[in-house]
Amino acid sequence: MKLEIENLSVAYDTGAVLHGLSLQMEEGEFLSILGPSGCGKTTLMKAIAGIVPVQGGHIYLDGQEITALPIHKRGTVVVFQDMRLFPHKTVAENVAFPLKMQGVAKGERLRRARELLQTVQMGGYENRRPSELSGGQQQRVALARALAAKPRLLLLDEAFSALDENLREEMRNLVLQLKEEFQMTVILVTHDREEALSMSDRIALMFEGRLIQCGTPWQVYTQPVSRQAADYFGNCVYLPGTVEQGMFTAPGIRFPTEKAEGNYELLLRPDCLSILDAGDYPVTVETISFRGSDTVVHLRGTDGVLWKKAFTGKVNLQVGDTLRAALTIENPVLFEVSSAQ
Amino acid sequence: MKEKTAIILLLAPFGLLMAVVAAAVGNVLVQSVGYIPAFGLTKPTLDYYLQVFTRADFLSAVWVSLRIALFSSVLSCILGVLVSMALIRCGKTRGGILYAIRAPILVPHAVVAVFIIQLLSQNGLAARVGFALGLLEDSAQFPQLLYTPGYWGTILAYLWKEIPFVAYFVLAFMGSISATLGEAAENLGASALRSFWEITLPMSIPVIARAFLIIFIFAFGGYELPLLLGATAPKALSVQTYLAYTSPDLLQRPLAMAMNAVMLLLSSLLALIFGSLVFRLNRRMGGGK
Ligand SMILES: Nc1ncnc2c1ncn2[C@@H]1O[C@H](COP(=O)(O)OP(=O)(O)OP(=O)(O)O)[C@@H](O)[C@H]1O
Ligand SMILES: [Mg+2]
After folding, report:
1. B46-284 falls under which CATH superfamily?
2. Model-level pTM?
């Protein structure tokens, strides 16, 4: 289902949370929203679902304006961060609840509930109460209950956070598979960058109630629009330099650019640094920490920049070694340094 | 050691209170079997209980009190819950409105009785307004609510006080249920009404039941309102008992005490039955822990 959000503003009595936010989604798209805690992700989900009143802007689903539609008529289902299972109903009754609201007969809806519980690997728990389940089990029941509603738009608010790594992987795959099957459009709110990068068609980065960037995982990771956006994915290194006459220059680096003249910082990530070459960028090994699947080595450049590079396999380095590394820059990203600083 | 003394000190006032209650109950029971040496009654007997249960005025008094208690508690719970729900739906669960709701709870019963007389007697405010608007040809056409065996005036007075009490009592709890689980239900396709009916109301039954019990027991034993607004006959249980107690005929004393004992017994029995019902409900709600 096509979703369009125009200039959405939401405020609580504690102050404004969303400031004129706009977003477009295509039918069947999987969008992840990434952003620091408290930036308004849950609020955005609730605004789309009609749970919090909006102060301004419009929301369209499939071309139909739903901004003023009551909650239960929107067809947008949220899997809440705090799950919100009904404690006085059994697991099966919880999952059957949306079907009950649609008027599906009892036998049929319990059968469907049982099926859905099987898909989220919760078969056999039908007659338990939610209070008798673990956090991860509750999350899976909440997911099954949301799917039972056959939403036009599924909103997952950190729906996998209580699951362990294996189960999380399975639930992700399940959601992706069901998304295809039910032709759902899905928004996933998450703190997990890798989850967002690996699952999504597109990622929206949110800071303080605004979307600062929206694009494919590749775009968002490799072409961040600001230092804030770049830093969100971490592991960034910035080399200060200047642009003069169409050339960016920093110690040991020079390449043509279309940026206007001025002071810039060049964004680099550890994959730009290759230490096996006999390059012209000397670095010193500061620390070596083994982490199981890889080893992280902190390398200090002569310009004082600290690189945190992960190596797989055996690392033949000693603290204090000096290496002749090389920088390879494929898609340089430059951020202007404001002259005020 | 120190802790123990602290606990004993803290519990002392409560213990004292309980001791007084126990002594009073014991006194009632002893006197009710006709043992009052001061009046020259020394032979225990169950005759007074027999008398109590065969007296028509006592039985109708039990009936009157039960009726008042039942009507006022059931109606105030239903209406109080509706008021609370209405407040929640318009997002008014905090601030000034709470003071407005609390006001009737603080008004003494005797004052409420005066209000009700001013408002509902046949030459009261309601009757006169009805007459002025041409709804009534004569203010005496206004239904007789006060001093009648139906005790409607008493019930209305209780409603005036207890509807706000129920609304206040359940508001915070229902509000939080509605804001989380009720919202989730609507999100899953339930209309506001169904979400209330399927989720918020059943989840709130234990709290509502507690409010019900408080009102019921209070109205069952309440004295001022049935005295001031009720009929001369049949009387409410509390009024009947007090009358017997203050009778100049001292030999009525054991009878009054037997009535008291029966009232106590009925109240405790009702509270007990009700308490166990609520306990079971609570367990079924999955919130028993
Ligand atoms: N009901 C509310 N009343 C007042 N302020 C609220 C309410 N809910 C959220 N806020 C505030 O709105 C801001 C955004 O909250 P929101 O829950 O949308 O954050 P979030 O991005 O989902 O954070 P997290 O990642 O921690 O879940 C926060 O500053 C929060 O304190
Ligand atoms: Mg959140």
Report:
1. MetI-like (1.10.3720.10)
2. 0.84
